[in-house]
Amino acid sequence: MIQIRIWDWPTRIFHWSLASLVVALVITGNVGGNAMVWHFKCGYAVLSLIIFRFIWGFCGGHWSRWRQLTCTPSLIRQYFKTSKPHAAYLGHNPVGSLSVIAMMALLVLQVSTGLFSDDEISNAGPLVSLVSESRVSLATYWHKGFGKTIILLLVAVHLLAILWYFLKKKQNLTIAMLKGHKTADHPAPSSKDGPANWLLAVLSILLSACLVYALINLGATAG
Predict the structure, then answer these.
(1) Closest to 143 in 3D by CA, of 18, 19, 52, 39
(2) What is the mean pLDDT of the chain?
(3) The total number of structural domains that make up the chain
(4) Please, what's the largest Cα pairwise distance for the chain?
(5) What is the sign, positive or negative, of the torsion defined by CA atoms of 11, 12, 17, 18?
(6) 37-41, 124-128, 172-176, range with the lowest pLDDT
(7) What is the tens place of the pLDDT at every residue in 182-200?
């Protein structure tokens, strides 16, 4: 058996940071009031992380790259039909790849609608002044209703899938995301995970944060 580096440090930090921020967003959004200050800050952090992950999908470790997300319809059908063990998928399997893309897309939509939302009490997104009242109402309706519900459902499915893999497949996906490596019975490429990669990740997240900063200040500039 061979130990292979699958998830580099930047990918793992991204994963656990995003999970923590989503929890914080749900809590602060439900609490409301003064907690909304942190709700907005967490939202900006999530958007920064998503932009970072998009960049990292082109220059990160081997298994973190977008080309490793194999989720075409034919591959998904084959994944469900095959009787062979699924351990051959060292990175994300086709269903996992699809869930990653869906979660990222929905988080982008959720954070984006938050930028244009207004509770008509004391909290308004930084870009409210850039769009019409009808679009603000639509963004608010989605952000506080369907968007939040769908993301919570996806998180629940994600957790259930991890539990299913642990109980049925005897695969601890959580440990793999914590330690970064998996055990395989055949040679496979390892993700580069060293100081040069970490420096590139730091530059990528700084660029992402600067882009978010510029975005949230568009409203103030327009005003």
Answers:
(1) 39
(2) 91
(3) 1
(4) 61
(5) positive
(6) 172-176
(7) 888 888 899 999 999 999 9
- The Cβ of residue 91 has, within 10 Å, a number of other Cβ atoms equal to 20
- Mean pLDDT, to the nearest integer, of 51-55? 97
Q: Which residues pair with 181 in a beta bridge?
A: 5
Residue 159 is encoded by which pair of tokens?
A: 């957790």
Does residue 162 sit within a domain?
Answer: yes
Structural domain range at position 70: 2-197
What are the φ/ψ torsions at residue 178 (nearest 5 degrees)?
-80, -45
Q: What is the CATH number of the domain that holds 110?
A: 1.20.950.20
CA pair distance 118, 126, nearest whole angstrom: 10
Q: How far is CA 140 from the centre of its chain?
A: 21
Answer yes or no: is 65 within a domain: yes
Q: How confident is the model at residue 36 (pLDDT cuts 50, 70, 90)?
A: very high
Sign of the alpha-carbon torsion through 150, 52, 14, 167: positive
Residue 207 in any domain: the answer is no
- At residue 93, the pLDDT reads 86
**What is the DSSP code (8-state) at residue 89?**
-
Structure tokens at 76: 């998904």
Q: Is residue 125 part of a domain?
A: yes
Q: Distance between CA atoms of 125 and 138, rounded to whole angstroms?
A: 13
